[in-house]
Write a structure and sequence with these properties.
Layout: H1 5-18, E1 29-31, H2 35-45, E2 51-55, H3 72-77, E3 82-85, H4 88-93, H5 98-110, E4 114-119, H6 123-127, H7 131-142, H8 148-151, E5 155-158, H9 172-190, H10 192-197, E6 200-203, H11 211-215, E7 222-224, H12 232-241
Parallel strand pairs: 1-2, 2-3, 3-4, 4-5, 5-6, 6-7
The structure holds 2-phosphoglycolic acid.
Length: about 240
């Protein structure tokens, strides 16, 4: 819930200009503004085919009396191709459960959009050493009801809650350990091929200084960038560190 129409437009204009040939051809840059700004941001993003747009949340119902909510069809109609689902702030402040997120995932896929499905543990859960089980449950209850064809459209984001907006990043080894675990879970459910082709992003205090070491890890396929994405230079510098 940062920036407004004018400052959001300035930011995206800078980003579309800076995402150029130095950004690897198969790299995707997705910007996810608040829903009210998706339309105007998508209009500006159109000028750069490497940049696409997503929303930060959507409602699970098709349409109806859900005052204040936004449906997937509405988000799609204003130019979004992705929807972030299950961000830890949605889980923590808005009571979103894995069961609800499974319904939201279905709604997003039904309209041909791609969910960026977030999973991750709190510090307390890590200290209790239950984080692997927690992530296993988030996957099993949130997305593993999908068919292998449906799952091919899902992007996963591992975001340790203790690293989001705190300035504390998971070490590359800590992140890799969980990413490898996630990929093995996918392989067990959908097979090796599906596991290899799934993008698993890391999120949590990613910045231009630590991004290269994180992205160098075998199972880290990209980043979900919060605070650093509000500064075009930092955001694009992070994008450019990704070169595997
Ligand atoms: P951060 O946020 O990069 O500011 O830690 C990540 C996120 O909100 O997912």
């Amino acid at each position: 819930m940062n920036l407004d129409l004018t400052s959001g437009q300035s930011l995206i204009s800078e980003v579309v200009n800076m995402v150029n040939d130095e950004v690897r051809g198969d790299q995707e840059v997705i910007v996810c503004p608040p829903s009210v700004l998706v339309y105007s941001i998508a209009q500006l993003a159109k000028s750069n085919p490497k940049v696409s747009v997503g929303a930060q949340n959507s409602h699970e119902a098709e349409s109806g009396a859900y005052t204040g909510e936004t449906s997937v069809a509405q988000i799609k109609s204003v130019g979004a191709e992705y929807v972030i689902l299950g961000h830890s702030e949605r889980r923590q402040y808005f009571g979103e459960t894995n069961a609800l997120l499974a319904k939201k995932t279905d709604a997003v896929l039904k309209h041909g959009l791609k969910p960026i499905f977030c999973i991750g543990e709190t510090l307390e859960e890590r200290n209790q050493n239950i984080h692997f089980q927690l992530i296993k449950d988030q996957l099993a209850e949130g997305v593993f009801h999908l068919s292998v064809e449906e799952f091919a459209n899902v992007v996963l984001a591992y975001e340790p809650v203790w690293a989001i907006g705190t300035g504390v990043t998971a070490s590359p080894e800590q992140a890799q350990e969980v990413h490898e675990f996630i990929r093995k879970e996918i392989a067990a459910k959908y097979g090796e091929e599906a596991a290899e082709s799934t993008s698993i992003l890391y999120g949590g205090s990613c910045n231009p200084k630590n991004a290269a070491d994180l992205f160098a890890q075998k199972d880290i396929d990209g980043g979900l960038i919060g605070g650093a994405s509000l500064k075009s230079r930092d955001f694009v510098d992070i994008i450019k560190t990704f070169n595997k």
